[in-house]
Design brief:
Helix 5 (about 105-130) packs across helix 14. The protein is about 80% helix and about 0% strand. The two termini are about 40 Å apart. The chain folds into two domains: about 10-190 and about 255-475, MFS general substrate transporter like domains (Growth Hormone, Chain: A), CATH 1.20.1250; about 205-255. It has helices at about 5-30, 40-45, 50-75, 80-100, 105-130, 135-165, 170-190, 205-225, 230-255, 265-300, 300-320, 330-350, 365-385, 395-420, 430-475. The protein is an all-alpha fold. It contains 15 helices and no strands.
């Protein structure tokens, strides 16, 4: 191959990586944008506690319900096409959401934005897996993708807080829409199309059942924060259980299943999926709740809360970029396990506060958690695509990120219930006491997840050693 051809290929690969990373960043900006302006948004839409909870949770429902199916669609029908359509859906949902001054309409458009975001995230990791071969190149690309996750989380609350202070909370969504359209046009021009060589076909019954079951589960968790014995909540939990069991049977019997259930016997796949779930249930859940807590309990402004969140997420960005320097001899599952244990240490640093605590009290724990989160983010993308068959990177990405957002929804519910009902009261002292307990619980979840992932790594290593010994004996 001529030198110019190699150079052209390298440039094209970098363009694909940049577009994929920026797409993921935009989705995370959309996901976290309401955190710092939720009070202004709720007041503008004239909604109460229930509506506020739905505003914060609605995009998670769209993401979790659609990630798995959009990953399969990206692999089969075109990763660039799926990315572009996803970005346009994000733009359309963002625009409609601010044009219709109604909380129900806003929540529904946030679900739509989540569905578009799912297509973007799943296809972006699929593009990276297709573009970069396993090894140092993919490790570096995965580190950049992981950094984009942290960057989106960092930018979202800060951008919306600054724009709300300058003019209106609506402005962040207009900026998102314009950026999404511009990136869609760029992707169409610069990113080559790719798809799996072995198409599985669209598993429509599985996609409908999974989306319905996950949506019912997350809706039950959201509604349950207002009262777990309410008939609506109980019905939603029952519907979720029945539909997800039906999904399991459909996938087990289907020849075109969007999720290969045999992967659940793979320690590598289970480890990556478990790490994603624990990341959502632990650190992301705490950070999602933290902005509102800092304002209501400690009187820290929206911009101050966004800057504190920025200290965690920006640290994770830098660490994710540096993670490519970790020796290839350190397996990805070891990085995930140790990263989760590091997150646990950082979350413990957020506990033990009192009513007089200021912003500086949170910094050490946030920075420790940020460093560990960067290690996890850098390894997660790589492990997600490495744990599935070649050419199914979109499916691996979809399954992994589904676990992350389902974990986030469950974790936010657990944190909110613990933090707001520690003694049945609602004073500042009660909120602070609840926060301290919630931070410890989230730390324990992260610690347990890290131990489980390391245990799965040991199990996988033993299985490989046994397989090598068996083949050597057979050859002898």
């Amino acid at each position: 191959m001529a030198t110019s051809d190699v150079s052209d290929t390298a440039v094209q690969d970098r363009r694909s990586l940049v577009v994929s990373a920026l797409g993921t960043l935009l989705v995370l900006v959309a996901f976290t944008a309401p955190l710092s302006t939720i009070n202004a948004t709720a007041a503008s839409l004239d909604t109460g506690v229930s509506g506020t909870t739905w505003i914060l949770s609605s995009m998670s429902i769209g993401l979790a319900a659609a990630l798995l199916s959009t990953g399969t669609i990206a692999d089969d029908f075109g990763r660039r096409r799926t990315l572009v359509i996803g970005l346009l859906v994000v733009a359309a949902g963002s625009i409609v959401g601010v044009l219709v001054p109604d909380v129900v309409a806003f929540v529904l458009t946030r679900v739509v934005v989540g569905i578009g975001g799912a297509a973007v995230i799943a296809s972006s990791l699929g593009i990276i897996a297709h573009t970069f071969a396993p090894g140092p190149a993919r490790a570096a690309a995965s580190g950049i993708w992981g950094a984009s996750v942290g960057a989106g989380i960092a930018i979202g609350p800060l951008l919306s807080a600054l724009l709300e202070r300058a003019h209106s909370w609506h402005d962040a969504y207009w900026v998102l829409a314009v950026a999404a359209v511009a990136l869609a046009a760029t992707a169409e021009k610069l990113v080559p199309e790719s798809r799996s060589e072995h198409r599985r076909g669209l598993d429509l019954p599985g996609a409908v059942l999974f989306a319905g079951g996950i949506s019912a589960l997350l809706a039950a968790l959201v509604e349950g924060r207002q009262g777990w014995s309410e008939p609506t909540v109980l019905v939603l939990f029952v519907v979720a259980g029945v539909v997800l069991v039906m999904f399991w049977f459909v996938e087990y019997r289907s020849k075109t299943s969007m999720l290969d259930l045999a992967l659940l016997r793979s320690p590598a796949f289970v480890a990556a999926t478990a790490a994603a779930f624990v990341t959502g249930a632990g650190v992301i859940a705490v950070m999602s709740f933290m902005s509102g807590f800092l304002g209501s309990a400690l009187g820290i402004t929206a911009i101050g809360a966004a800057l504190l969140l920025f200290s965690w997420s920006a640290t994770s960005v830098v660490t994710a970029l540096l993670a490519r320097r970790i020796s290839p001899r350190v397996p990805g599952r070891v990085q995930l396990g140790l990263g989760l244990i590091g997150i646990a240490a950082g979350l413990l640093g957020l506990a033990g506060i009192d009513e007089g605590s200021g912003w500086a009290r949170f910094l050490p724990g946030l920075i420790v958690a940020g460093v560990a989160s960067g290690v996890v983010n850098a390894a997660l993308g790589r492990e997600a695509v490495a744990s599935v068959p070649p050419g199914r990177g979109g499916m691996g990405s979809g399954a992994n990120n589904t676990a992350r957002y389902v974990g986030s929804a469950i974790g936010v519910t657990v944190v909110a219930v613990i933090a707001t009902h520690p003694r049945g009261g609602s004073t500042v002292g009660d909120l602070v006491a609840g926060w301290n307990v919630a931070a410890v619980v989230a730390a324990l979840i992260s610690l347990l997840g890290g131990v489980v992932v390391l245990g799965l790594h040991v199990l996988a290593a033993r299985e490989r050693a046994a397989a090598v010994e068996k083949s050597t004996t057979a050859a002898g």
